[in-house]
Amino acid sequence: MSTGVRQLSTTEGFLCGGLAACMAVTISNPAEVAKTRLQLQGELVKGGGLKVYNNAFDAMIKTWRNEGIRGLQRGLGVAYAYQIPLNGSRLSLYDPFRRTLNRAFGWSSADQIPITSLVAGAASGAVGAIIGNPLFLVKARMQAYSPALPVGTQRHYKNSLSALATIWRTEGIRGYLRGMDAAILRTAMGSSVQLPSYNWTKNQLVGHAILPGDSVWTFVASSSVSGICVSLVMQPADTALTRMYNQPTTKLPDGRVVGALYKSPIDCLWKTVKTEGVLGWYKGLFAHFLRITPHTIITLTMNDIIRNLYKDLAWGRSYV
């Protein structure tokens, strides 16, 4: 049964979501650089090893002092390219997946059912992670590189295109797929709570007449709750992903190039907890929060604003 509300096509939703995410990553990228370096600091060292960076703010300050704005925004170009397939997929496919699952179980496609919302969020996130994996791999390696205060394995790429060419030349097609299982796990976990928690909070605020549905403050409040949920749920998988992407590689006798430290995200999490304790999983948690919360706020807020502006421009005020 139709809800009477005209919906954006998947392509339109993909483009709106990608544009919103590119706006967000400009603001959140410095915290992402700090998070990446904190996650690699003291990797597989008993007791955490020597601390180069004390916390998220210290990491950003030292990066600024030693590398300037280029250091703080390291990997920004490829981050833009990555955000388009990742968040374009997540934000455009979530509602079609959710509505399809609802109909499959005999529920109204308009209802926000917790289980179908979680599954739809995870599935749309997994699609984005698969499409964007080579770009996320390059971004992580570029952000890990520091000419002044290096942590973890260091790779110096001139730019993202040079990085993609180098990976192809040295690691082959498998290089582009490296860490994909961890990327799917990370993004599925984050996406499973990001949009459901956002939509639930928004529905509560509007349904209880606390805020109007078209208010920017409604978008900001809903995004804030969503950002907190994502950072808590996704952190262990995010640490595993960073380490799997950045680990050194070794060439086997059969010619395959494999990771020298970890075989899988589960192997990475197990080795991390054995040597660094459970807190090793949560290295860079505050930096992750500083990244994901404003990123979520800006992405989801701007996604709603851009979608509404597009509807007004393309269809006029009579689209409902």
TrEMBL record:
SUPFAM superfamilies hit by this protein: Mitochondrial carrier
Domain of life: Eukaryota
Pfam families, per the entry: Mito_carr (PF00153)
Predominant place of localization: mitochondrion
Residue windows of the Solcar repeats: 12-100, 112-204, 214-309
Protein name in the entry: Mitochondrial carrier domain-containing protein
Keywords: Membrane, Mitochondrion, Mitochondrion inner membrane, Repeat, Transmembrane, Transmembrane helix, Transport
PROSITE patterns for this protein: SOLCAR
Cellular localization per UniProt: Mitochondrion inner membrane
Family: Belongs to the mitochondrial carrier (TC 2.A.29) family.
GO cellular component: mitochondrial inner membrane
Membrane topology: Multi-pass membrane protein
